[in-house]
TrEMBL record:
Alphabetically ordered keywords of this record: Lyase, Metal-binding, Zinc
Gene3D superfamilies per the UniProt record, alphabetical: Carbonic anhydrase
Cofactor(s), by name: Zn(2+)
Source lineage: Bacteria, Pseudomonadati, Planctomycetota, Planctomycetia, Gemmatales
Catalysed reactions, as listed in the record: hydrogencarbonate + H(+) = CO2 + H2O
CDD domains reported for this sequence: beta_CA_cladeB
Protein name as it appears in the record: Carbonic anhydrase
Amino acid sequence: MQKLIQGIHQFQGKSFVPMQGLFEQLAKGQKPETLFITCSDSRIDPALLTQAKPGDLFILRNAGNIVPPHGAGNGGEAATIEFAVAALGVKDIIICGHSHCGAMHGLLKPDQVAALPAVSAWLSHAETTRRIMRDNYGHLEGERLLTATVEENVLVQLENLRTLPAVGSRLVRGDLHLHGWVYKIETGEVFAYDVESAQFVKLAEYNPQIEPTVRRRTTNVI
Ligand SMILES: [Zn+2]
């Protein structure tokens, strides 16, 4: 805790001053262009990996970067996404999974989270992912199975995202774009789902204009 308090002193004494103008501007209102949905995992720093400044990203985080589908209950996720899409008018939504995801590990090994009833219930929103893995990825195991699960889950959650009325409406208008990313902790690389090849590709090879809509086959593991 002491480390964090020292960090705040350091922020106020050093980092804040050169950015004071930006913060004063932001105090009048926010206009982020991107909703960034990712896992709560401490090893991901959305602003660091995108080099975004305060005010750039509207961020939603939870275990497993999960988006409960429409009708799943009045959760904070639907409210946060609705606000971002219908009130702030974000132009892009990124769902970013990550390597070594504990939530996806729990999805594959439900007995290991059996003593965590809230986690188990939460992971039911990723049941489609679990079934896709069981029925299509029997040839994989260990780290490769986990990585493929992370990738498939990003795609499943993008589909859930489309069921939300505010998102569906903006997609029809064509002024909202969805993106599926996976962040690899050990290399700092980001892979994006490319709809044409139906694979996750390095970000440099990704065309952000094409939405990740149709999935035609199982993905290669990055
Ligand atoms: Zn995670």
